[in-house]
Amino acid sequence: MKIRLLSILTSISAVFLSGCTGVSTENIEAVRPFNINSYLGVWYELARLPHSFEDGIIKSQATYRWGRNGQIEVINEGIVRKTGKRKSVTGYAETYKKSDAGELRVSFFRPFYGRYRIIYLDENYTKAIVTSSTSDYLWILSRRKDLPDKELQLLVAIAAEYGFDTDSLIYPWK
After folding, report:
1. Cα separations in angstroms, 77 against 68, 88, 163
2. Backbone angles phi, psi at 16, to 5 degrees
């Protein structure tokens, strides 16, 4: 039984790791100081790098709020382009290493957690650039789904300066 469980866990890990081919983002500092309470609320996903778990999803948004158990609930939702139906998934987040940096551990498939690193955040907590542990993952977020193009392009330029493949970005609200 232990061998079978280990085999299953190894297979699951291999699936998760096989999709990660990007360069490490460890050299990009997460924002500091970071106030989780100011970050809570609704964020619209204005641009992202493509991933199978978001294929065909438009009008994406994420809501961050305190859950009953003291963890942060993360509700990701969007519209399936082909059907027009809303799709939603709920995960949980916690601060990473209990620091004042904009880093969280997020899980949609417990017990597996991924890194959520906020590498840009304006002082009013209205615009953000988020990555994970590799450059395969990038999201440009805003409190407004209708952010002016000039402001969005500035965020894209910042992401490009960090070395992200901004030519491959998908714009789910356009």
Report:
1. 20, 4, 28
2. -65, -45
Decide if 40 contacts 66 (C-beta within 8 A): yes
Domains of the chain: 36-168 (2.40.128.20)
pLDDT score at 14: 37
Q: How confident is the model at residue 21 (pLDDT cuts 50, 70, 90)?
A: low
Element (H or E) spanning 154, and its range?
helix 149-161
pTM for this prediction: 0.85
Q: How far is residue 141 from each of residues 45, 59, 60, measured CA to CA in Å?
A: 5, 12, 10
56: alpha, beta or left, given left = phi > 0 and alpha = psi -120 to 50?
Answer: left
Quote the distance between the C-alpha of residue 40 and its chain's center.
14
pLDDT at 17 over 60: no
- The pLDDT value given to residue 98: 67
d(C-alpha 120, C-alpha 117), whole Å: 9
Predicted pLDDT at 7 = 37
Residue 113, class by beta-carbon neighbours within 10 Å (0-12 exposed, 13-18 middle, 19+ buried)? Answer: middle
